[in-house]
Amino acid sequence: VRMATGWENLLQDEQQLEELARQAVDRALAEGVLLRTSQEPSSSDENNSSQVSTSIPLSPHQVVSYAPFTLFPSLVPCALLEQAYAVQMDFNLLVDAVSQNSAFLEQTLSSTIKRDDFTARLFDIHQQVLKEGIAQTVFLGLNRSDYMFQCNADGSPSLKQIEINTISASFGGLASRTPAVHRHVLSVLNKTKEAAKILSNNPSKGLALGLAKAWELYGSANALVLLIAQEKERNIFDQRAIENELLARNIHVIRRRFEDVSAKASLDQDRRLFMDGQEIAVVYFRDGYMPNQYSLQDWEARLQLERSRAVKCPDVATQLAGTKKVQQELSRGGMLEAMLPGQPEAVARLRATFAGLYSLDMGKEGDQAITKALAAPSRFVLKPQREGGGNNLYGEEMVQALERLKDNEERASYILMEKIEPEPFRNCLLRPGSPARVVQCISELGIFGVYVRQGKTLVMNKHVGHLLRTKAIEHADGGVAAGVAVLDNPYPVVLTDVETLGAFSQLSHLMTRKAVSF
């Protein structure tokens, strides 16, 4: 709280704010908080024709800038941060249990796959692999469970899960580089005590630990890790952080696209996977979570990878376990108990984080959910079975969609969720090419989880770090990669009494609304 009040003069001093923003951006660039830019590089970046012909042309996406971030760390109650960490191993167990329960997946997704082609294709691959017999014996989960801080009626905050990402959970690399930036900002302000409170965080190290364990258990010393990458990947440095951690353990990573798999991958008679003639121990997907990422040929490549003995991260069952429909079904009474028998404490920890989730399947239950949402649209959000941000519907858009879907079976491909309402606060957002803006914000906390299973034995189950992302409240949906939220760090605060609770919204009084151009 003292930290917050200490910013007051500073945040009304535009010149000082501008100088601080410049310092912060330079430190972010120096620390490697980077994204490739979306525009093509200018001619000055291309090889000049007069140069010696032996120069190697760079790929056309080598222009970089800093990844958007907040000027200050945002206040997060210690108790909620601890709670999110404490429940992560339970979520790991839950996702793993669901992925092994093919009857539950089939029953839960039966209505969804009739109307959602993407989920249907994934489910079809799952069925084919089950029928043939799963060749894979080692299973690896790298996930991120995302939460917001619900503002309760008495003003106290509580932790509510938004979703769990079971495929291509990103920003573990960049999140390890942002603490130094916020420590730098606070140190420039002579706030060394406060700077020391910013938690060290290195998710990429922990994610690499999971990949390394899976690689080791696969048991072939010369085998590689195959990272399935998008063609134009702006978030390359985030991925390289994990690759570099693996290389330090002498585990080599090759980056390929689905098209390369189609052209050059093969399975031998034991269903071992080979790429360019080299055996693959682990397939790590950083692509393949959205429909527009697959051509028909890419679906064939995905099937080929799934049929192989290689450890898939995730295997298709684990990707299905991360769908919104599964999330909604798990919130039904008795479901967690069935998935995690004899673990009442884990069940209680999990259930405490659930927001209200409702099925939109055809029938009475779905009808009632729609009636509820149409009566109070501001209290709900409509979610399709999609990852990657920018897909959810709110307010008037949600009402129009529900009116259209009311009597249509397509509604089964959505779920309805109670909207989590955090207490907004102020921070200053820094983005390349935009003025620094002091705006009303909300944050989303993600915890990275890693587990490895060999046969039926869980050999690793841990949490490996966090990610805080902050967005201006005018943005209802979307993550950093979708271009809305920015990277942040939690500044842990103890909320012990009513006075301290004010700290949560105290930034509102500290920051001016003016944009700082820089």
Automatic annotation (TrEMBL):
Keywords: ATP-binding, Glutathione biosynthesis, Ligase, Magnesium, Metal-binding, Nucleotide-binding. Substrate binds at residues 167-170, 233-235, 239, 286-289, 469, 480-481. Pfam families: GSH_synth_ATP, GSH_synthase. It comes from Galemys pyrenaicus (Iberian desman). It catalyses: gamma-L-glutamyl-(2S)-2-aminobutanoate + glycine + ATP = ophthalmate + ADP + phosphate + H(+); gamma-L-glutamyl-L-cysteine + glycine + ATP = glutathione + ADP + phosphate + H(+). This is Glutathione synthetase. Homodimer. Belongs to the eukaryotic GSH synthase family. GO terms for molecular function: ATP binding; glutathione binding; glutathione synthase activity; metal ion binding. NCBIfam families: glut_syn_euk (TIGR01986). Binds 1 Mg(2+) ion per subunit. It is an enzyme of class 6 (ligase). Mg(2+) binds at residues 163, 165, 387. Its cofactor is Mg(2+). Pathway: Sulfur metabolism; glutathione biosynthesis; glutathione from L-cysteine and L-glutamate: step 2/2. Residues 224-321 form the Glutathione synthase substrate-binding domain. GO terms for cellular component: cytosol. ATP binds at residues 144, 163, 324, 383-392, 394, 417-420, 444, 471, 477. Catalyzes the production of glutathione from gamma-glutamylcysteine and glycine in an ATP-dependent manner. Glutathione (gamma-glutamylcysteinylglycine, GSH) is the most abundant intracellular thiol in living aerobic cells and is required for numerous processes including the protection of cells against oxidative damage, amino acid transport, the detoxification of foreign compounds, the maintenance of protein sulfhydryl groups in a reduced state and acts as a cofactor for a number of enzymes. Participates in ophthalmate biosynthesis in hepatocytes. InterPro entries: Glutathione_synthase, Glutathione_synthase_a-hlx, Glutathione_synthase_C_euk, Glutathione_synthase_N_euk, GSH-S_sub-bd_sf, GSH_synth_subst-bd, PreATP-grasp_dom_sf.
